[in-house]
């Protein structure tokens, strides 16, 4: 009898979705970056997604493996960008807004190609990657223009994006638990 492999997508999607929602509540201007976002970025957005990605690779799921490990390392690198300037490392100075914008553009380009990879699949998965692409480019624009209003708009997009990932995670989890599709995705 062959052992059934677990679907790790809900773990990765929840790590991504919940962390994205929290960060974008900040981007909307409601709270400063704090240990709440930093901890979620390291542990749930970062490490949990990396674990989900590595398991996806072992299951032969290259797209999921690439997505989860990449975005897990995105969260760890974002936290490092925030924290490293507060260390004694001389080269770890603060990042200018325009250079941070370049960082976000690269992630936007990567995400646009990942979105392309979702075509023909789940509509909700397509929406997650499309809204994330828009989010990265909107955040980059806010940094290039040093415009807080655009950053707040990005926050709204980010909450929608994170919420859609959360929804997809719950839909996949419930389908497995109930042995039938409960929520459309």
Quick structural summary:
The chain is mainly alpha-helical and 185 residues long. The chain has helices spanning 9-27, 35-58, 62-83, 97-118, 123-145, 148-178. The chain has a single domain (9-178), classed as Alpha Horseshoe (Serine Threonine Protein Phosphatase 5, Tetratricopeptide repeat), CATH 1.25.40.
What's the main sheet like? none
Poorly predicted runs are none
* Annotated CATH architecture: Alpha Horseshoe
Amount of helix: over 70%
Radius of gyration: 17 Å
Q: Could you give the distance between the termini?
A: 30 Å
The domain count comes to 1
What best-fitting shape do the alpha-carbon axes yield? Answer: globular
* Total number of beta strands: 0
What is the helix/strand order?
Answer: HHHHHH
Q: Output the number of helix runs.
A: 6
Percent strand equals under 5%
* CATH fold-level name: Serine Threonine Protein Phosphatase 5, Tetratricopeptide repeat
The structural class is mainly alpha
Structural overview:
The protein is an all-alpha fold and about 180 residues long. Helices cover about 75% and strands about 0% of the residues. It is built from six helices and no strands. Helix 1 (about 10-25) packs antiparallel against helix 2, helix 1 runs parallel beside helix 3 (about 60-85) and helix 5 (about 125-145) runs antiparallel to helix 6 (about 150-180). The longest helix has about 30 residues, at about 150-180. The two termini are about 30 Å apart. The mean pLDDT is about 95.
């Amino acid at each position: 009898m062959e052992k059934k492999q677990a679907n790790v997508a809900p773990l990765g999607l929840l790590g991504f979705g919940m962390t994205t929602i929290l960060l974008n509540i900040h981007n909307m201007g409601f709270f400063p970056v704090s240990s709440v976002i930093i901890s979620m970025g390291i542990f749930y957005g970062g490490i949990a997604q990396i674990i989900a990605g590595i398991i996806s690779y072992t299951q032969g799921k290259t797209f999921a493996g690439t997505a989860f490990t990449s975005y897990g390392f995105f969260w760890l690198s974002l936290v490092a960008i925030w924290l490293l300037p507060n260390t004694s490392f001389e080269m770890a100075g603060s990042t200018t807004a325009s250079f941070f914008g370049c960082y976000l553009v690269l992630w936007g380009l990567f995400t646009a190609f990942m979105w392309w990879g979702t075509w023909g699949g789940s509509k909700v998965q397509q929406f997650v990657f499309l809204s994330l692409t828009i989010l990265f480019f909107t955040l980059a624009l806010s940094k290039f223009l040093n415009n807080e209003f655009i950053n707040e708009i990005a926050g709204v997009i980010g909450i929608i994006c994170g919420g859609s990932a959360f929804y997809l995670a719950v839909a996949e989890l419930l389908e497995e638990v109930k042995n039938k599709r409960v929520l459309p995705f």
